[in-house]
Amino acid sequence: MKAIILTIGNEVLSGQVVDTNAAWIAQQLLEIGLAVREKWSVADDISEIISALANATDKGEIIITTGGLGPTADDLTTEALAEFMKVSRSFHEDTFDRLSKMFASIGRVPGPQHKIQCMLPEGVTILPNNAGTAPGMYFNFEGRHLISMPGVPMEMKAIFDPFVIELLKSVRTGPRRRSHTFNTIGEGETVLEDLLKVITANVPSNINFAFLPDIYKVRVRVDVDSDSNEDILLWEEIIGQVRSILAPCLAGENEVTLEVAVGNLLKQKNWMAGTAESCTGGYLAHMITSIPGSSDYFKGGMVAYSNSIKSEYLQVSQDILNQHGAVSEETVKAMAIGAIKQLKVDVAVSVSGIAGPGGGTPEKPVGLVWIGLANNKGKVMAQKIKLRRDRLNNIRAASIMALILMHRFLLDE
């Protein structure tokens, strides 16, 4: 079955809001074996929404919209759906009662605009929204499955899981898409593609490879569109071959990302980790703590942005700072050792660099970053990298490389 996602809202088209909903929905659909064929953004305009719905129902069996279900004048999706399906709208008492109870719980009452919000097209199946006011809606329209949800990500996700997921599982037809993802580090997509040519050159048409690059990382996804036992066995055999080829640069598979892999290694060693960050400003610690349960292996970190903090709290000597500067091999080694002592951890990673756009010199240009690692057994190392991105992406790139080096450091122990 072909799925199409429509994101409705002027704020998305103008770039004021980034459309994270479509990406999240596509990922969830893939988890249940459905592939998104197209994604469009549509203005808050009834005629344009209707045109997009007509186009989508011509091309796909599942059409998912987000946005335009609120109580304000620019929320036009419900009206557009009714006009597109040529049905009238009626007041939904149950929806308004639920909304009234929600308002009462915070000492408020719904206004007239919320009654308009409860004017829903005939034939609707309500998809409960336990995180907001606008209900999700489902329509079986001429053999097409139309699903409409609010644009607020928290509300959309509360409707999608579990209500939309269960609905789509019940209506899904045709072969299911199965996917397996390899999370690689340290090699570019062209290198990985060349490594895997021995496999990709000979796979059947219903088995597909996708190379999804990020900074210092590439996800290699292997999909099969089939319910045949023979095809699935071949797909599993290919996964094993890919695993063997990619082993030297593999952090993990499927949900085991680089961050998860580092955490797993720390747990295996029963080690606690800490961070000492300058130019990354805590982003490295953010990446580590983005994983649930990271308190089992991450004790804490310091953002030592100024030299005085490096000296006072991480015990980096003034001689090192004066002689070598904050962005140097000697400083990041001292920062990592200081973090071991001050945080009382088993392993620490440190970062110091020039994220830009200013602050560089001919000797130490913008993008120069040093990363240090130390453990409580006395092992210390450092590595220099040179980045050529904007400030925010330099910060992210330095943090990712610090995690990659930490992953390798832990594997070598």
Kindly summarize this structure in a few lines:
The chain has 413 residues and is of the alpha/beta class.
Structural write-up:
By secondary structure, the chain is α/β, with parallel strands linked by helices. It folds into 3 domains: 170 residues, MoaB/Mog-like domain (Molybdenum Cofactor Biosythetic Enzyme, Chain A); 77 residues, Alpha-Beta Plaits, CATH 3.30.70.2860; 155 residues, CinA-like (Maf protein). It has 16 helices and 17 strands. The protein has a 6-stranded mixed β-sheet, with helices on both faces. β6 and β7 form a beta hairpin. The model has no long low-confidence stretch (mean pLDDT 97).
What features would you highlight for this structure?
Molybdenum Cofactor Biosythetic Enzyme, Chain A, Alpha-Beta Plaits, Maf protein, 3 domains
Structural domains: how many: 3
CATH superfamily of the largest domain: MoaB/Mog-like domain
What share of the residues lie within helices?
40-55%
- Would you tell me which CATH topology of the largest domain applies? Molybdenum Cofactor Biosythetic Enzyme, Chain A
Characterize the largest beta sheet: strand count, sense, and whether it forms a barrel.
Answer: 6 strands, mixed
Unreliable stretches (pLDDT < 50, length at least 5) are none
Walk across the major sheet and give the strand order. Answer: 2-1-3-8-7-6
Under the CATH scheme, which architecture of the largest domain would be assigned? 3-Layer(aba) Sandwich
Using the alpha-carbon principal axes, give the shape: globular
Rg value = 26 Å
Total strands: 17
Q: Between the first and last Cα atoms, what is the distance in angstroms?
A: 48 Å
What is the SS-derived class? Answer: alpha/beta
